[in-house]
Amino acid sequence: MEDYKQERNERCGCGSGKKHKKCCGRFSLHEMTAKLTAYVEANRRKDQLIRRSLRFLESRGGDAILCLVNPKPDSDDVISWTQVDNKTPVDEREAVVTRRILAGYLPVCALVADKEEASGWQAVIDAAMVGEEVRGEFVAFARLEAATIVGTMNGEIDPYDSWMTAVPWEDRSYPGMPIKPRPATTIRIEVNVAKRGIRTIWGHYGAMDFSIPESHYTEHGGMNDVEFALAQANDIVEALSQTSPPKQLVEGDRIELYLDIPDSEMKLLAAANVKGYGLEGTFGQGGAA
After folding, report:
1. Which segments within the chain are labelled E, that is strand?
2. 62/120 Cα distance (integer angstroms)
């Protein structure tokens, strides 16, 4: 016998007396994203949404981050998001917010630093950003996305297990906007040999995940995990010396290599400073340079 699928207008099977769509069947991710996507596509007042989201960010003093989310999952059911903090220059902030909203993103919430919260952040949701017909779904969606973003930012949710994907930093600018040189920062290279992945984090400028090609395992088959991680990191450093800003290495960058060990804390293997177009010291076997 096939499993019975409760209709949305029927009384909920939990016994609450409410219709299923207003009770246990109210907030499925598929329904929320479908409704929110439809709202974004039908919205003809995006300029108001842009102005309101900028005021929303500017009104928050101290450390605050505006999270913009595209509620339309890609083919792999991954939802992309970007963040703009209140320390971002005004011209860039406006360009980022404008481009994202025009591309279908929604400013779901602002994350405000809060020492009293266990996560370190308080999510502030402006329900008026969407119409009443989807306001309930929007608030539920915003809470879900905020919790996931905070968990990913704080390292509580493994990037491999999170359905969120941060938008690359350089993709936040508007077409034709010159890319400004970023200040020096700490670049973390985290190599997870077991999961065959590398995560590179440019301070608060964003992060990118890479899969380690099968050929690298064949090529470096005789190495232990530490030697293998060092070899992968040197490949990343070489690529970063030739890529475009802001991912490109700049004078004063500090590069730290970590071995991501399952069920254990990350292990710092090596560190080096960028001097000119190269590294000051040897970024290789033997620990910190």
Report:
1. 64-69, 79-85, 106-113, 121-124, 164-166, 186-192, 197-202, 207-211, 254-259, 267-275, 278-280
2. 13
Phi-psi region of 225 (alpha: psi -120 to 50; beta: other; left: phi over 0): alpha
Q: Is 3 helix (H, G, I), strand (E, B) or coil?
A: coil
Give the distance, in angstroms, between the CA of residue 50 and the centroid of all CA atoms in the same chain. 21
CA torsion 154-160-166-170 (nearest 10°) is 110
Task: Give residue 179's region: left, alpha or beta (phi > 0; psi -120 to 50).
Answer: beta
Cβ atoms of residues 231 and 259 within 8 Å: no
Q: Give pLDDT tens digits for 5-45.
A: 566 677 777 677 777 655 665 556 666 777 777 766 666 67
pLDDT tens-digit readout, 201-221: 887 667 788 888 888 887 777
| Alpha carbon 156 to its chain's center | 13
Q: What is the pTM of this model?
A: 0.52
Q: Closest Cα to residue 189, out of 131, 266, 135, 248?
A: 266
Q: Among 167, 249, 204, which Cα is nearest to 87's?
A: 204
Distance CA 92, CA 32 (A): 30
Q: Which of 109, 107, 140 is nearest to 40 (CA)?
A: 107
